[in-house]
Amino acid sequence: MPAALYPKNIKLDYLSRGGVRTLVADNEIKAPLLCFECEQRFSRNGESEVLRHIAGKIANKPSPLLAKLTPLTVKEEDATLKSYCGTEAGLKMDMFAYFALSIAWRSTHSWPVLGEEDTESLNLGLYKEPVRQFLAEEIIEFPRDTAVTAIVCTDKVSREAWFLPAQSDDIWYHDLRFLAFGVMFRVTLGKRCLPS
Ligand SMILES: [Zn+2]
């Protein structure tokens, strides 16, 4: 998981299979997976840009993403959610999508967690290989039937927490989510992605 998600000098609680845990070392959820070149590509195409907006060190300050979005026209609205177009706020949404896919893909591997069971490997099914090809820049087009939503949370609890990618599939699609300091990323892969 990207190192910027575990900031130094901040007490960090996160949710794992064992329940809520406090991260005590910045190497708790780490395993060799990518070569240097791929690490650089992941960083260049998504991580470095996205983590500027959500890195943990800003958790106690006003949310820069909310400040960018709230002046914009609301596209859709219900009781709990307002939708905006991130591009209108000047956000590089293709990089948010790449970042979320890169975390989803990394989560198909099992990660060791200090003091408890390894993380469960998530399943991208038939989409795993097209996602890998896209991330590796072997293909340029965004993978088919794939959607990434970034949900900017307004509550304090979400702003101060993160949880590891978790999966709750529907029969029609794979549905993965992870929370990173007030931004919930949702990745759906499948032909029928019904909003919920
Ligand atoms: Zn590589």
Quote the average pLDDT. Answer: 84
Bound small molecules, by name, code or SMILES, are: zinc ion
Report the end-to-end length measured between terminal Cα atoms. 27 Å
The largest sheet, given as strand count, sense and whether it forms a barrel, is: 6 strands, mixed
- Work out the strand percent: 15-25%
- As laid out across the biggest beta sheet, the strand order is 2-1-6-7-8-5
**Class derived from helix and strand content:** alpha+beta
- The number of domains: 1
Helix percentage range: 25-40%
User: H/E element string?
Assistant: EEHHEEHHEHEEE
The number of E-state strands comes to 8
Regions with little confidence, pLDDT below 50 for 5+ residues: none
Shape: globular
Please report the number of helical segments.
5
Q: Rg from C-alpha positions?
A: 16 Å
Per-chain topology:
Blueprint: E1 12-16, E2 19-23, H1 36-54, H2 64-69, E3 76-77, E4 82-83, H3 93-106, H4 128-135, E5 146-152, H5 156-159, E6 161-167, E7 173-180, E8 183-190
